Every structure is written in structure tokens, then in C-alpha cells.
Amino acid sequence: MKILFFGITRDIVGKPEFDAGEFKEIGTVGDLRDLLNAKYPRLKDLSSLNFAINEEFAEDSKAISANDEIALIPPVSGG
């Protein structure tokens, strides 16, 4: 699985993406959220953080497979 980081999530993690072979035991978006929050505690400080699987927004209950591309989409502001 490939994980992409955008905006502030990229700053928190320190890179724009990584292959998450180490996360093979992750079954759902919620599992991944918990693991990333434990590894990068500053992610928990974001007011909202959406996940997308293969370019579609995904709820925490959505299953993840090894071939998925997952994006972390932080809150955005604009005007």
C-alpha cells in the first residue's frame, strides 16, 4: 500500500509519501488512522483529517488492501 501525505500532514510526517509494507496487518482506514496517530501524534491535533482510498473518500470502516493508494487529506482553508 502506498500512503500519500498532503499539506500539513506532509510537514508532520516529513515526506510526501511512503510505501507502507510495514503496515500489512492494517485492515481498515480506522486501523491506519490509529497507527499513524500513534506514530505521528501531531496528526491528532488537526481539526479534521480525511482519508481517501484510490481517489475516493473513505470512512474509518472501509477495508484496505495491499494494492491500495491511500491519501491523507488535511483541513483546507481558502477564501
From TrEMBL:
The keyword Nucleotide-binding applies. Transmembrane segments: none annotated. Pfam families: ThiS. Keywords: Nucleotide-binding. The keyword Nucleotide-binding applies. It comes from the Bacteria. InterPro entries: Beta-grasp_dom_sf (IPR012675), MOCS2A (IPR044672), Mopterin_synth/thiamin_S_b (IPR016155), ThiS/MoaD-like (IPR003749). Belongs to the MoaD family. This is Molybdopterin synthase sulfur carrier subunit.
